[in-house]
Amino acid sequence: MQLLDKIDELVTSDSKKLVLGITGAGGKTSTLIALGKYYRAKGKKVLLSTTTKIQSPRFFNFEVDHVFLNEADFFNHEPKEFESVLFVEKHIMNAKKAISPREEILSILPNKYDVVIFEADGARCLPCKIHNDRDPVITNEMTAIIALVGLSSYNDMAANVCMGENSTEIVDFNYYQKLIDNEEGLLKGIKDTHKSMILFNQSDLVDSNTIENLKNLKATSQIVFGSIKYNKLY
């Protein structure tokens, strides 16, 4: 089984459409793109968006069939099977960023789509984060959550690699466990009603002994080790 198949197994439900939020740090946009392509190849009507901020599609390739930067164009489009769409709004102050559609319409975005995937967090390109009171932005419509952490943070100083952190503590097994247990950590916003998982991305960057040790971490959500870049489970 490859990583994307494992993610699909853990986040989908027979009784609901998939409305997925990706939180945390360490490859959220890469995961968004990879899953968009994965579900499009399965014949789904796929919508990608954000509930916070994301890179602007004017400067970044999300590998979708259509990009919409305003509501009128988005709602005039009739999605098809085997098609993926990105819908975000222009950021007035920063041309390199795009922002979430209006809160008032987030709840109706899934109506025409089989799979909706939101990047629901920001991490300033760092592989790890402690949340603040404004994030992650998880909407009521989300049926599943992937909480992400990048293993490029392993064995570095927390203040260097973890957003919201100023500690000189080294990121290791104990640090990741605290990140899982912390109310502002990896599992923030995840409810019992969500299908959820923790993905330790970038597992190709550490050795097999490290991964075997980290597999002893404890969480209420299933922990998966993999590489989005290589679509590989570890």
Detailed description of the structure:
- This protein has 234 residues and is α/β, with parallel strands linked by helices.
- It has one domain (3-233): 3-Layer(aba) Sandwich (Rossmann fold).
- It is 23% helix and 26% strand.
- The protein has seven helices and 14 strands.
- The protein has helices at 3-11, 28-41, 71-76, 103-106, 158-161, 173-181, 208-214; strands at 18-24, 45-50, 53-55, 66-68, 83-87, 89-90, 97-99, 115-119, 128-129, 144-150, 162-163, 195-201, 222-227, 232-233.
- Strands 4-5-2-8-1-10-12-13-14 form a nine-stranded mixed sheet. It has a three-stranded antiparallel sheet with strand order 3-7-6, with no helix packed on it. It has a two-stranded parallel sheet with strand order 9-11.
- Strand 13 and strand 14 form a beta hairpin.
- The radius of gyration is 17 Å and the shape is globular.
- The model has no long low-confidence stretch (mean pLDDT 95).
Key terms:
three-stranded antiparallel sheet, 234 residues, Rossmann fold, nine-stranded mixed sheet, globular, alpha/beta
| Largest sheet geometry | 9 strands, mixed
Global Rg = 17 Å
- Whole-number total of structural domains: 1
**Count the strands?**
14
CATH class term: Alpha Beta
Order of strands across the main sheet: 4-5-2-8-1-10-12-13-14
Gross morphology: globular
Distance between the termini: 10 Å
Helix content: 10-25%
SSE string, helices as H and strands as E: HEHEEEHEEEHEEEHEHEHEE
Low-confidence runs of at least 5 consecutive residues: none
Secondary-structure-based class equals: alpha/beta
* Total of DSSP H or I helical runs spanning 4+ residues: 7
CATH architectural category:
3-Layer(aba) Sandwich
Strand content: 25-35%
- What do we call the CATH topology? Rossmann fold
Q: What do the pLDDT scores average to?
A: 95
